[in-house]
């Protein structure tokens, strides 16, 4: 069965009225998937995360205009932001080699020609597996892991917030990653890429 991301219409109505909690629910529902979409297009996990955050910032800045359903709108927004990123990169990296020029052109064509990004991830229920894996962690480990994963807090920040040592945070993150590696299997490397663990 294909896993479909769904946000109910009442959540969108609350966002229209400036409800920050409802917006946070929208963000956490779509963040991982949209990062995967952007990563596929720009081949850079850090840039992909910035793009997705920019998209959500734009959504919040125009929250009164958001219309249900939002899936297609969010994906289209990410694609457009990715195109802008690649075009800016083309202008900044002068002169480009033939290989670089061809790569950027291929990336742009891929975005234009791909109406269903990451369909293979949907079929494998990638989103659902990540959320289930994180939710299956022991309570203490899960709380720390979520702060690190979704809120991009440092070990030191998490330690201060939770009144524990940085070494304890490090151990809990290691436990969380080991569990996710076991549960995600072949999807684990993609998970690391999306959340930029290779560079942390």
UniProtKB/TrEMBL annotation:
<keyword id="KW-0804">Transcription</keyword>
<dbReference type="InterPro" id="IPR014284">
    <property type="entry name" value="RNA_pol_sigma-70_dom"/>
</dbReference>
<feature type="domain" description="RNA polymerase sigma factor 70 region 4 type 2">
    <location>
        <begin position="128"/>
        <end position="180"/>
    </location>
</feature>
<dbReference type="GO" id="GO:0006352">
    <property type="term" value="P:DNA-templated transcription initiation"/>
</dbReference>
<dbReference type="Pfam" id="PF04542">
    <property type="entry name" value="Sigma70_r2"/>
</dbReference>
<dbReference type="InterPro" id="IPR013325">
    <property type="entry name" value="RNA_pol_sigma_r2"/>
</dbReference>
<dbReference type="GO" id="GO:0003677">
    <property type="term" value="F:DNA binding"/>
</dbReference>
<keyword id="KW-0805">Transcription regulation</keyword>
<dbReference type="InterPro" id="IPR013324">
    <property type="entry name" value="RNA_pol_sigma_r3/r4-like"/>
</dbReference>
<dbReference type="InterPro" id="IPR014327">
    <property type="entry name" value="RNA_pol_sigma70_bacteroid"/>
</dbReference>
<dbReference type="InterPro" id="IPR013249">
    <property type="entry name" value="RNA_pol_sigma70_r4_t2"/>
</dbReference>
<dbReference type="InterPro" id="IPR007627">
    <property type="entry name" value="RNA_pol_sigma70_r2"/>
</dbReference>
<dbReference type="Pfam" id="PF08281">
    <property type="entry name" value="Sigma70_r4_2"/>
</dbReference>
<feature type="domain" description="RNA polymerase sigma-70 region 2">
    <location>
        <begin position="26"/>
        <end position="90"/>
    </location>
</feature>
<comment type="similarity">
    <text>Belongs to the sigma-70 factor family. ECF subfamily.</text>
</comment>
<dbReference type="InterPro" id="IPR039425">
    <property type="entry name" value="RNA_pol_sigma-70-like"/>
</dbReference>
<keyword id="KW-0731">Sigma factor</keyword>
<protein>
    <submittedName>
        <fullName>RNA polymerase subunit sigma-70</fullName>
    </submittedName>
</protein>
<dbReference type="InterPro" id="IPR036388">
    <property type="entry name" value="WH-like_DNA-bd_sf"/>
</dbReference>
<dbReference type="GO" id="GO:0016987">
    <property type="term" value="F:sigma factor activity"/>
</dbReference>
């Amino acid at each position: 069965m294909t896993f479909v991301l769904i946000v109910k219409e009442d959540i969108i109505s609350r966002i229209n009225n400036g409800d920050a909690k409802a917006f946070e629910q929208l963000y956490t529902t779509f963040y991982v998937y949209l990062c995967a979409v952007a990563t596929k297009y720009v081949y850079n996990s850090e840039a992909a995360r910035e793009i997705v955050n920019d998209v959500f910032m734009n959504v919040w800045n125009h929250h009164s205009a958001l219309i249900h359903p939002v899936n297609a709108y969010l994906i289209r927004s990410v694609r457009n932001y990715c195109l802008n990123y690649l075009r800016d990169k083309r202008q900044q990296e002068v002169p480009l080699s033939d290989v670089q020029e061809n790569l950027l052109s291929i990336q742009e064509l891929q975005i234009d020609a791909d109406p269903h990004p990451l369909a293979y991830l949907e079929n494998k229920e990638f989103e659902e597996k990540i959320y289930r894996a994180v939710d299956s962690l022991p309570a203490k480990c899960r709380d720390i892991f979520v702060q690190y994963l979704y809120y991009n807090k440092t070990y030191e920040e998490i330690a201060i917030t939770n009144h524990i040592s940085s070494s304890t945070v490090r151990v809990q993150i290691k436990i969380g990653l080991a569990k996710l590696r076991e549960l995600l299997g072949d999807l684990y490397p993609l998970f690391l890429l999306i959340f930029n663990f290779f560079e942390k």
